[in-house]
Amino acid sequence: MKYTIGEPIRDTKAPEGPIEDRWDKRRFSAKLVNPANKRKLTVIVVGTGLAGGSAAATLGELGYQVKSFCYQDSPRRAHSIAAQGGINAAKNYRGDGDSIYRLFYDTVKGGDFRARESNVYRLAQVSVNIIDQAVAQGVPFAREYGGLLDTRSFGGAQVSRTFYARGQTGQQLLLGAYQALERQIAAGTVEMHTRHEMLDVVVSGGRARGVIVRDLVSGEIETHLADAVVLATGGYGNVFFLSTNAKGCNTTAIWRAHRRGAYFGNPCYTQIHPTCIPVSGDYQSKLTLMSESLRNDGRVWVPLRKGDDRAPGDIPEDERDYYLERIYPAFGNLVPRDIASRAAKNVCDEGRGVGPGGLGVYLDFADAIARLGREAVEKKYGNLFEMYERITGEDPYTRPMRIYPAVHYTMGGLWVDYDLQSTVPGLFVIGEANFSDHGANRLGASALMQGLADGYFVLPTTVGDYLAGGPFGEVDQADVDEAIGQVNGKIGRLLSVNGTRTADSYHRELGKLMWDYCGMERTEESLRKALERIPELREEFWNNVKVPGDGEGLNQALERAGRVADFFDLAELMCLDALHRTESCGGHFRAESQTEDGEALRDDENFAYVAAWEYGPEGPVLHKERLEYEYVKMSQRSYK
Amino acid sequence: MAVTGAMLVLFLIGHMIGNAKLFLGKESFNAYAEWLRTVGEPALPARTLLTLTEIVLAAAVILHMWAAVTLARRAAKARPVKYATKKKSQANGYVVHTMRYGGVIVVLFVVWHLLDLTFGVVNPEGFAATPYDRVVAGFQPSRWWVTAFYVAALVMVGLHLRHGLWSAFQTLGLVGGRNRRLLNAGAAVFSALLILGFLAVPIAVTIGAVK
Amino acid sequence: MNLTLKVWRQNGPADSGRMVTYQVTDVSPDMSFLEMLDVLNERLILEGDDPVAFDHDCREGICGMCGMVINGVAHGEQKATTTCQLHMRHFEDGATVTIEPWRAAPFPVVKDLVVDRGAFDRIIQAGGFISVPAGSAPDAHSVPVKKDDADAAFDAATCIGCGACVAACPNGSASLFTAAKITHLGLLPQGGPERDSRVVSMVEQMDAEGFGGCTNTGECTAVCPKGISLDVIAQMNRDYLKAAK
Ligand SMILES: Cc1cc2nc3c(=O)[nH]c(=O)nc-3n(C[C@H](O)[C@H](O)[C@H](O)COP(=O)(O)OP(=O)(O)OC[C@H]3O[C@@H](n4cnc5c(N)ncnc54)[C@H](O)[C@@H]3O)c2cc1C
Ligand code: HEM
Ligand code: HEM
Ligand code: SF4
Ligand code: F3S
Ligand code: FES
What we know:
The complex is a heterotrimer of chains A (640), B (211) and C (245).
Chain A: E1 4-5, H1 22-29, H2 35-38, E2 42-46, H3 50-62, E3 65-69, E4 87-88, H4 100-110, H5 117-136, E5 151-152, E6 162-163, H6 169-187, E7 190-193, E8 196-204, E9 207-215, E10 221-225, E11 228-231, H7 252-259, E12 264-265, E13 270-276, E14 299-303, E15 320-321, H8 323-327, H9 337-349, E16 361-364, H10 366-372, H11 374-392, E17 401-410, E18 413-414, E19 427-429, H12 447-468, H13 477-497, H14 503-518, H15 524-544, H16 556-580, H17 604-607, E20 609-614, E21 621-626
Parallel strand pairs in A: 1-21, 2-3, 2-11, 3-7, 11-19
Antiparallel strand pairs in A: 4-6, 5-6, 8-9, 9-10, 12-18, 12-20, 13-17, 14-15, 14-16, 16-17, 20-21
Helix pairs in contact in A: 3-6, 3-12, 4-5, 5-12, 10-11, 14-15, 14-16, 15-16
Chain B: H1 2-20, H2 26-38, H3 48-78, H4 99-118, H5 131-138, H6 144-171, H7 179-206
Helix pairs in contact in B: 1-3, 1-6, 1-7, 4-6, 6-7
Chain C: E1 3-9, E2 18-24, H1 33-46, E3 69-70, E4 73-74, E5 96-100, E6 109-111, E7 114-115, H2 118-125, H3 147-157, H4 164-168, H5 175-187, H6 195-208, H7 219-223, H8 231-244
Parallel strand pairs in C: 1-5
Antiparallel strand pairs in C: 1-2, 3-4, 3-5, 6-7
The complex binds flavin-adenine dinucleotide, protoporphyrin IX containing FE (HEM) (2 copies), iron/sulfur cluster, FE3-S4 cluster and FE2/S2 (inorganic) cluster.
């Protein structure tokens, strides 16, 4: 696939001056809309996860006319509900030396110096307000006996700044946002459209002015017009078919926006989580995350010998390879996510993996049980062991768990400026759907923070500034008709192929291909292979897919086929992005670029930029946004 | 439901204790029956207490039944299409599902019971006899089937109360946390005692312990 | 394993629906229930049939989207388990499995096993929230909460809104769902100011949606994937009696 280099991006609209003052400055300079006018302005928010739910509720409260959309039957079911671990905030309630500056620092470093300083600093500042907001809404965070909030440390941070609600932090935060949203629905400021899937953006007069959606129940194609459009449609990890994401997670909304002119930032940045329950067979439909905390007491190993298929208990101690402890004696089983993931892949590639298909490693609690007693282990991890047993039917108290890495999060997404506005004026992108604050790698417990920061605090200010520049005039009907034509055309095409394979089977094949060639480890060769194979498979898809039924009424197979079609296009751009970035950084590991110890080796001289891809009829156009670091000095990460 | 149910329960407690006087002999029991009719005289007209009880009871039963019917109708409306599979109870077993027809059986019993012991219509001794004689005659060994009927009906009452009692507490919001188990056990013990108390009389008569 | 499935098929709200029998072969015991249905659907699509519509999303027991009545029990007979977390190893080879949608008038069938649970959202709209505009909240530590209260509120807050309680209740009552939210918010000091108005309007909305009344049969809590306790219903009743006074 050919691409061209376009103009670099010079201005991200971040204010100048000391970093601590930038967000205040921006807030002050933002124009306000007077209350009487707000009622006449419509904002569309697609997505009801932490980002979209909080944004729609807040905009409604401010007095705008909001139209909210999600594909589930209720806004409460957005994928954010599945987040387990927690949410970071620089509250320093522990007095352990945390501060906004430290959270900012950790996040920039954790992102392997591929995130913007101004954005990350703002995120750290706003994190404090998120906790206040959530607690006031009744989010039942864990508390201590004194009645104050409990925190824990998470993902490499040296301070205890992660607020949590048992293993269900995402659920509780989302219910808070959902309830705020329902309150606005009752108040009449938000009009909710559930079971509606957004299929295109209406761009008219150079601005985003609405969306085309399909009512999933009636099958009707509807047009909704507005003065601004916000996309909060989540991540695209499902391009790999198997991931920890919910089944419905898709790229359709942002991909359609990309086709209409929004740049796509860093599409290749993907996070792989090391402790997931491995695939058990070809029918597997998704992967389940097991909390990382298990690595505190479990020991990771594989048989020393290739193809050793004895039961784990029958393999004597001296025929086991505790490879993490061997390779990383200092960190042992606690090396960071990307390192642990890659090491597991390496031993499995050597043919030493365990379980069905040889894609798994043991996480063994025998030592911990011997040392602490079964009861203590049960107390700490009981619910996780139960979940494991439920899924695999194996008892982790007597037989080591099997784990394997899985796709978990996508740091890439639509490019946005400091105001969270994409390159299409009036089109804002928030939450996991944008590329913004995590750089090349996301730290645990910071996605929830980012989604809520965007939705509750940042977007409401910046959308107001944009809308104050209106009114933007009538929407040209020709633009609407063109978008509807596109949507109907695609649906019609999918339904008319009537081939011999299901969309799911193509998705599975695409996912496997992406995992093998553009997964945990990428090489020039593998990426070139992928770039060759994807168009072939896409071609086959469009000529041989079978989608039953018609466009009228509920047709889940049709929904899926539409999403798979867009995944094909996105997959290609991901591989291209991964191929052009010949350095390794964070979640993007190019085998050609590693240190002697096998760690990611950045190339700051050539790649300290955001890759923002523009959709072009002659192939993508790459715009580079240079990243400057004034406050945190760029350095190499090390875990030995 | 809970309030009317509770009133019925209160009556039952009193009624059981009253019945127990039967063991104290004929005079005592008849005197009690007499007292029931004359208490408060001459300040109050005859049968004031009894009539009041009867009115309250009748009202409670009607309201209770009305509430039960309303609930049942709402339930039917809330599930117009039934499940094809017979649902398996996942909860405390079948007792909780006997409330509706169990209640109807109890009422049928009360009708019979009134005809029997209050109006004496179906009682060998008839209306003219003293209450004591009616009871004793009613449960003669030869009339074992009456006793059997009472036993069956009382077990039904017991089951109804077994669930109904704690259910009333739940409906009134008086249960919570640790109390729940205690209350549940309490309801079981209470219903059992009450029913045993009631059963003592007919059984005693049938086996000839009371003549 | 091989199974005989009897599945409820209904084209839409207007269709009266019927049970249809399918054979599925080569079911792996490690499959989840939904994966078994995926396999059936793949086959139906290739055979030119209409695949069975069912709701699902997270497939890990937290979004509350999935739900079907399996052999007469909401979410199947495994305790504290959503349909997506139910695995085929709990079924016997050769067994017949019946699959029906949630049945309740306020949950009309959209298609096959998919029902419309919008009534739950409307119950929340009636008062299942704490009114606090973004940006106006005081510091999180300004109001300490007793750990017991926080824990109890949390227990109630774990409800995933799946609707199994309604499906299982012989009266088609939504009491467990509604009471869970009332209890969650009512136990926290933050929820105090709106406690009375909340319980009254939510209960009224629940009744207006056409759900049945609760007669404390406890089937709901027995199938609830999150094990929400009947205590929440007692709490709701208590709050209601107090507020309605
Ligand atoms: C298993 C798991 C555990 C996690 N744990 C943590 C954690 O502990 N801490 C942390 O910080 N992060 C965690 N994350 C990451 C975090 O949960 C997500 O990044 C975050 O919730 C994304 O929120 P969002 O609002 O951007 O999007 P989502 O919550 O994904 O919401 C997307 C919304 O968009 C809608 N939508 C999507 N496409 C369309 C369309 N085409 N038309 C209409 N609507 C559409 C959906 O209906 C949905 O409402 C975890 C992620 C996973 C998978
Ligand atoms: C036609 C006759 C009857 C019917 C249909 C009937 C039905 C019911 C039903 C359905 C309930 C459950 C309601 C709930 O839990 O809220 C109930 C509860 C109860 N019933 Fe009855 N019943 C009848 C007669 C009686 C009698 C005669 C008594 C007393 C002797 C009685 C005592 C109770 C009590 C104490 C409760 C618990 C109240 C509550 O939980 O709110 N019932 N009844
Ligand atoms: C086996 C046990 C019982 C015995 C021996 C018994 C006996 C009697 C007697 C002798 C009377 C007449 C009293 C009088 O006329 O002064 C009476 C009245 C009555 N009994 Fe029972 N009874 C029994 C159980 C019950 C039960 C279980 C119920 C209700 C569920 C019940 C409900 C009534 C009622 C409603 C009256 C009429 C009271 C009145 O007129 O005020 N009885 N009973
Ligand atoms: S109370 Fe339980 S069964 Fe009912 S909706 Fe909530 S989680 Fe589902
Ligand atoms: S099953 Fe129904 S009757 Fe009440 S206790 Fe549960 S709502
Ligand atoms: S699919 Fe989310 S709970 Fe089952």
